């Protein structure tokens, strides 16, 4: 199965090599920089992110029963846990009594959660375990636990829907059959966390996804880092429902195409693939490991975003520490110093009122399509609430 998918991808890249990247057949489009600053638009996007699955962490980060992590997703304080039977749960990290934060540690292992304010306690699935001094508190029993959130483990990632009132969709449905199949074939489910870090960035979250939606910048912005490994302007990026994805060959793959017959092509180890899941998650395949970008916009400030970057590697190759460490160090230089820095620079110029319009080329059209998809998802999320 994986071999079939590899050859399909190889054929598409071969077409691209034979025919060359398509020249522009349309003019450039103008984009209003307000898409990166408008508070009303931002509020709608936040509602869409709250109502969609967010990549909270790698499954392997909650390795043992009782493991938990606390975080903030779409502005909602969240606890993600693994219970004694191995199932994962997500709850608002907010006490059902009078709203205190229940778990203040960033991560750890717990048998129960106990609120520091009046010691109400909760099980690993968020259900109420005990009320302190119950006879003084009320004549009626209280059963209200923590508000539970949609939570599913799939493809080695724990996905949480931060809005407690949102209808939680199965991840396979949300990804769509093609992306779901791709992630299965790539073996994401057998990958484990190697390292993770967070960046607090002064830019709109979409300026970060824009970097994945075009490769025009690759040979210029990344001239001194990764550009030498890739041919210019070659990508198969396309739409998958509301999501996007595509492959970039490395020079070594072009050599493979030229020198070996189709049945001997080694494909996946010579490619980078990027899957931009709307809204706010990017899964990047890098010739054998995966970089997971979970973009967490500030709830009210459109010009701030936390980007959580996690590197996942095949569980059966976790011991190749030197290789993964080298790759991780490369990621931690290229992405923040080049892509993230460019996004922050553009945002600063927009915030200074110095950008009247942005010009999006035919080769960058993915940026406009991504913004359209975000708008579509945001409107779809708002409409049921209005009816
Ligand atoms: S607010 Fe948590 S026990 Fe009172
Ligand atoms: Fe880039």
TrEMBL record:
Q: Which residues form the Rieske domain?
A: 55-160
User: Which co-factors does it depend on?
Assistant: Fe cation
Q: Name one Pfam family in it.
A: Ring_hydroxyl_A
Keywords of this protein's UniProt record, alphabetized? 2Fe-2S, Dioxygenase, Iron, Iron-sulfur, Metal-binding, Oxidoreductase
**GO MF terms held by the record:** 2 iron, 2 sulfur cluster binding; dioxygenase activity; iron ion binding; monooxygenase activity; oxidoreductase activity, acting on paired donors, with incorporation or reduction of molecular oxygen
KW Kinase (keyword) present: no
Q: Which PROSITE patterns match?
A: RIESKE
Tell me which PANTHER family the record gives.
CHOLINE MONOOXYGENASE, CHLOROPLASTIC
Could you tell me what this protein is called? Phenylpropionate dioxygenase-like ring-hydroxylating dioxygenase large terminal subunit
Organism for this UniProt entry: Ilumatobacter fluminis
């Amino acid at each position: 199965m994986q071999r079939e998918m590899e050859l399909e991808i190889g054929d598409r890249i071969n077409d691209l090599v034979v025919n060359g990247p398509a020249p522009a057949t349309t003019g450039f489009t103008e984009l209003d920089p307000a898409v990166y600053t408008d508070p009303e638009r931002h509020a709608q996007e936040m509602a869409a992110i709250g109502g969609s699955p967010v990549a909270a962490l790698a499954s392997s980060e909650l390795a043992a029963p009782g493991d938990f992590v606390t975080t903030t997703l779409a502005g909602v304080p969240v606890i993600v846990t693994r219970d004694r039977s191995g199932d994962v749960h997500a709850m608002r990290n907010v006490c059902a009594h009078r709203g205190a934060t229940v778990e203040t540690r960033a991560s750890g292992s717990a048998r129960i959660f106990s609120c520091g304010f009046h010691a109400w306690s909760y099980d690993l699935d968020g259900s109420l375990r005990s009320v302190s001094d119950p006879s003084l508190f009320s004549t009626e029993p209280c059963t209200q636990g923590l508000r539970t959130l949609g939570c599913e483990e799939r493809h080695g990632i724990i996905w949480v829907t931060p809005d407690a009132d949102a209808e939680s969709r199965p991840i396979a449905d949300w990804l769509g059959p093609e992306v779901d199949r791709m992630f299965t074939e790539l073996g994401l489910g057998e990958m484990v966390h190697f390292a993770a870090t967070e960046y607090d960035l002064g830019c709109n979250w979409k300026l970060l996804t824009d970097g994945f939606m075009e490769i025009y910048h690759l040979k210029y912005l990344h001239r001194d880092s990764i550009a030498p490994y890739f041919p210019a302007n070659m990508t198969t990026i396309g739409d998958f429902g509301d999501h996007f994805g595509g492959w970039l060959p490395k020079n070594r793959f072009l050599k493979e195409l030229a020198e070996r017959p189709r049945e001997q092509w080694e494909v996946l180890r010579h490619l980078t693939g990027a899957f931009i899941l709307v809204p706010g998650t990017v899964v990047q395949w890098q010739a054998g490991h995966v970089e997971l970008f979970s973009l967490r916009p500030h709830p009210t400030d459109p010009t701030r975003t936390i980007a959580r970057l996690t590197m996942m590697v095949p569980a059966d190759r976790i011991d190749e520490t030197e290789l993964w460490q080298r790759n991780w160090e490369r990621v931690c230089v290229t992405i923040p110093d080049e892509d993230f820095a460019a996004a922050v620079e553009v945002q600063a110029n927009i915030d200074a009122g110095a950008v009247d319009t942005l010009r999006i080329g035919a080769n960058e059209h993915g940026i406009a399509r991504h913004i359209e998809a975000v708008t579509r998802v945001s409107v779809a999320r708002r409409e049921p609430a209005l009816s």
